[in-house]
Amino acid sequence: MRLLATVLSLVALLGAGPGGALAASAAAAGTKKSAEERFQLYHGKALSSAPIKLGDATYRELTAVPRDYAVAVLLTAMDSRYGCQLCREFQPEWGLLARSWTHGDKKGESRIVYATLDFTDGRDIFMSLGLQTAPVLYFFPPTVGPHAPASPEPIRYDFTGGAQAAEQVHSWIARHLPDRPHPPIRRPINWMRWIVTFVALSGGLTVSYVAWPYVLPVIQNRTVWAAVTLISILLFTSGHMFNHIRNVPYVAPDGRGGISYFAGGFQNQYGLETQIVAAMYGILALAGITLAIKVPRISDPKTQAVALFAWASVLFIVYSFLLSVFRRKNGGYPFSLPPFM
Amino acid sequence: MSADLLQVLASAGKGKGTRSLLRVIILALIAGAAVSSRLFSVIRFESIIHEFDPWFNFRATKYLVANGFYKFWDWFDDRTWHPLGRVTGGTLYPGLMVTSGVIYHALRALTIPVDIRNICVLLAPGFSGLTAIAAYLLTNEMTPSSSAGLLAALFVGIAPGYISRSVAGSYDNEAIAIFLLVFTFYLWIKALKQGSMLWGALCALFYGYMVASWGGYAFITCLLPLHAFVLICMGRYSTRLYVAYTTWYALGTLASMQIPFVGFLPVKTSEHMPALGIFGFLQLLAFLDYVRSAIPSRQFQTFLWLFAGATFGLGLLGLVIATSAGFIAPWSGRFYSLWDTGYAKIHIPIIASVSEHQPTAWPAFFFDLNMLIWLFPVGVYLCFQELADEHVFIVVYALFGSYFAGVMVRLMLTLTPVVCVAAAIAVSTLLDAYLNAKSPNPEEVQALESSEGKRAVKSGLRSTSKPVVGVYGLWGKGMVVGAMVVYLLVFVLHCTWVTSNAYSSPSVVLASRLPDGSQHIIDDYREAYQWLRQNTREDAKIMSWWDYGYQIGGMADRPTLVDNNTWNNTHIATVGKAMSSREEVSYPIMRQHEVDYVLVVFGGLLGYSGDDINKFLWMVRIAEGIWPDEVSERAFFTPRGEYRVDAEATETMKNSLMYKMSYYNYNNLFPPGQAVDRMRGARLPEVGPTLNTLEEAFTSENWIIRIYKVKDLDNLGRDHASAAAFDRGHKKKKATKKRGPRLLRVE
């Protein structure tokens, strides 16, 4: 029976793809062990260091059919030469998931092995799978035994949303392992962060205690509060939250080698654009405040006349410009003021 | 000469009686302008209910008028969310319907026969007139200048930010809620200024009305405690604050708990906890205040304030622990997504899918508020001048209102009142300074300066430390006032233009221009709903995406599977799965839910952008949230990451029920190989999709609405694919040929 199984796995591997010679040698290694032995071997390895680092041969051995256990393999490219940002972001999460699962399930009741195959160690595997991108996460379901699903094909995890948190991948794997224990993720306590927070907090308290007499007038200063309020209002009304939520580009090329400052369309904007708009609102508000409060308080008639004329013109011109910018965003807008008709 | 003339003109309004009369006339005119600027759609189209949610409100109002209040309160609606039904009476805000019901019965009692539909259509414009008056009252509390209130009323009356939700026919909760919001704030300021229980109780009463009307009441629930808290932090605790706040909180909370939909939420959920916390904190402060007045020791006072601070901190800690232990429900997703702006997109796609929950780009602010947007900071700055308790309210409201409006387009509505109030304060300050015909005398000013220069008025703001002199030249006054008049004129033109062009479309009826400039009405929605009403059984279940649920219920009067009250995400995901799966998968789902007809909206022929193919990805996403193994958003994108409908669309896309229903028979309209989707500018494959389990029942004039009938099981027990293939004439190859000579059948 065991002989039959190994022969079957040999046949399967030989038929699996290109790189026949390697496959054969891997299969030769695989012939020595049964599925159960392989699981015990790799589970033992995983207990000491999860996820296991694989090479070409070990990859083939671990994923050889028949297997009564599941394998989750992350195919990644960590070397800085490949510049895989996503791989580096996901690696700690993957390690965390593998460790906490394996240590939560020391006896191997969930029958899953976590492994990682780096591109530098397993170039041929990448080639034989036809992979152009990394990272790729494969889940190999068991092919025999009570938990084997109908289709033995490996399932690929979708990395479309960027680097995923360990919890999301955990729930994905748990979904493919029904009726078995799913050890929860245990995030290690970040001692460094606690210490830093504590030190910063006590430092901040000390500084504020010492500086309190100097800080208090600033806190109680109405002009400071007015400035903070106005700046926040200008930020919010000029679409800063939109930039923050949508991650819009700061500026974009206009296709003729230059830079376009204003995005086309009513529902779009660039980072710089909102800053220009906020600046315009700010100038308009400043002109309004000056005209309303400061100018009537100037006691010298000549100075007052000059200030009045200057600020009223600034208000008019900037508002005219604002209307012209808005007309550019909203094609059919009919209103304008001189000089920016 | 001109100064004399001005004085003569000004003296005409000097008498107190004349002034009040003028003010009443102006307010009445403003209210009239507010109402009439909202009537574009009635004049252009007809008296019709708009959009989606209003159709449900209209249907509920009709139910209320027909069956009375108590039946309405206990209404279980079995014609929506088939087969679950909906406890409608307990899951809606009844304020709107009850308001129109009361108006209806009052008019009946006065023997004025009026259709309930007309009341519903005109309710929002009517209440906008009241909002203008409420804004007048609120602004008058802020500033001694009497013109500011009138300006605020005018701004609120015609600002597009408010008109967007209150045109005639927009029969939605917001229609009355904004009036209640502004009026509640007015009563709160009044109660706070006078420390009066009566005003506090009135505030609570209108707060209760607000809770009965709109889910946005949480804005008040959070803003009033915040205002109180800021006042306490500024060291402005007073018995006035204590009386106003405790009266409002105690009575208002009791009032809000009478609404079945709200129930015990005010004592159980996080968004109501600040109000409760400040209530408790005020009791403590009141006690400490009493002790302080009794014991004058200075050390003891320090101890007391430390004690108060520590109690506050402990209370906060207790709240956090109670929340994490589950005694208090954490922030509901809708509110939480306002703070953690990425939350909704990941966890609650159904909230993120709604277009009015998107963040606001800057053109939207300018579009909705025009020049008010830059007058707004000016007004807020002017509030810092005096910074009395009520001005703190404007500052706090302005900050939070603008944050919320920036995160969600829809909350522009709650920002608009404060923008109008602040802008009115700014404009009236400007006009008061520059419309004063009297010019100061330079010598007097010099004398005043020398006498008062040394002991400058100690004010909070640096810019107002000098005394007001006035404006000298008449030309300078004329310039500023003239420019202001121009800005105001542009503002009025802008508001009218925006209302007329952007906010007056009922969206049930579409209007387009023909090449010769005449207007062409596209009435496909009503055509299709009318067809449903007249050609289907009374209890035929209609499956459509949830956007159209209320309209089908209201206009076609047929049961639906899902509607715009998105209370059951799984049920919506079921519909999404049926739409995005292959026919073989969808058919059992439809049979299980007893679906008789499927309705899709298709804009390909007309170039109508709000159709189901454009919304399709959200259906996929919502379905994927529940069945991640069976529906995958990825499969609807080509390998290059494009969302396509033409020949290069993915197989999953082409086989999905939605795609098939949208493009079924579409290519027959065009010469072979010329079929074009005008919305997405895509050339469609020459051979259109085939449908086996559905048959086309109705397609509206411009193909916007397509209705399909779900086939019954085949009479001969075949599966639908082979039965349909047989009907198309693809006969099965028979294994054995008939042998023997042909016989003429003779009877």
Automatic annotation (TrEMBL), chain A:
InterPro entries: OligosaccharylTrfase_OST3/OST6, Thioredoxin-like_sf. GO terms for cellular component: oligosaccharyltransferase complex. The chain crosses the membrane at residues 191-212, 224-242, 276-293, 305-326. One of its GO terms (biological process) is protein N-linked glycosylation via asparagine. Residues 1-23 form the signal peptide. SUPFAM superfamilies: Thioredoxin-like. Keywords: Endoplasmic reticulum, Membrane, Signal, Transmembrane, Transmembrane helix. It is found in: Endoplasmic reticulum membrane. It comes from the Eukaryota. It is a multi-pass membrane protein. Belongs to the OST3/OST6 family. Subunit of the oligosaccharyl transferase (OST) complex that catalyzes the initial transfer of a defined glycan (Glc(3)Man(9)GlcNAc(2) in eukaryotes) from the lipid carrier dolichol-pyrophosphate to an asparagine residue within an Asn-X-Ser/Thr consensus motif in nascent polypeptide chains, the first step in protein N-glycosylation. N-glycosylation occurs cotranslationally and the complex associates with the Sec61 complex at the channel-forming translocon complex that mediates protein translocation across the endoplasmic reticulum (ER). All subunits are required for a maximal enzyme activity. This is Magnesium transporter protein 1. It comes from Thermothielavioides terrestris (strain ATCC 38088 / NRRL 8126).
UniProtKB/TrEMBL annotation, chain B:
Residues 22-422 form the Oligosaccharyl transferase STT3 N-terminal domain. Keywords: Endoplasmic reticulum, Glycoprotein, Glycosyltransferase, Magnesium, Manganese, Membrane, Metal-binding, Transferase, Transmembrane, Transmembrane helix. Catalytic subunit of the oligosaccharyl transferase (OST) complex that catalyzes the initial transfer of a defined glycan (Glc(3)Man(9)GlcNAc(2) in eukaryotes) from the lipid carrier dolichol-pyrophosphate to an asparagine residue within an Asn-X-Ser/Thr consensus motif in nascent polypeptide chains, the first step in protein N-glycosylation. N-glycosylation occurs cotranslationally and the complex associates with the Sec61 complex at the channel-forming translocon complex that mediates protein translocation across the endoplasmic reticulum (ER). It is a multi-pass membrane protein. It holds the Pfam family STT3-PglB_core. GO terms for biological process: post-translational protein modification; protein N-linked glycosylation via asparagine. Pathway: Protein modification; protein glycosylation. It is found in: Endoplasmic reticulum membrane. This is Dolichyl-diphosphooligosaccharide--protein glycosyltransferase subunit STT3. GO terms for molecular function: dolichyl-diphosphooligosaccharide-protein glycotransferase activity; metal ion binding. Residues 729-747 have a biased composition (Basic residues). Residues 725-747 are annotated as: Disordered. The chain crosses the membrane at residues 21-43, 91-107, 119-139, 145-163, 175-191, 197-230, 242-267, 273-291, 303-329, 364-384, 391-409, 468-493. Its main location: endoplasmic reticulum. It comes from the Eukaryota. It catalyses: a di-trans,poly-cis-dolichyl diphosphooligosaccharide + L-asparaginyl-[protein] = N(4)-(oligosaccharide-(1->4)-N-acetyl-beta-D-glucosaminyl-(1->4)-N-acetyl-beta-D-glucosaminyl)-L-asparaginyl-[protein] + a di-trans,poly-cis-dolichyl diphosphate + H(+). One of its GO terms (cellular component) is oligosaccharyltransferase complex. Its EC number is 2.4.99.18. InterPro entries: Oligo_trans_STT3, STT3-PglB_core, STT3_N.
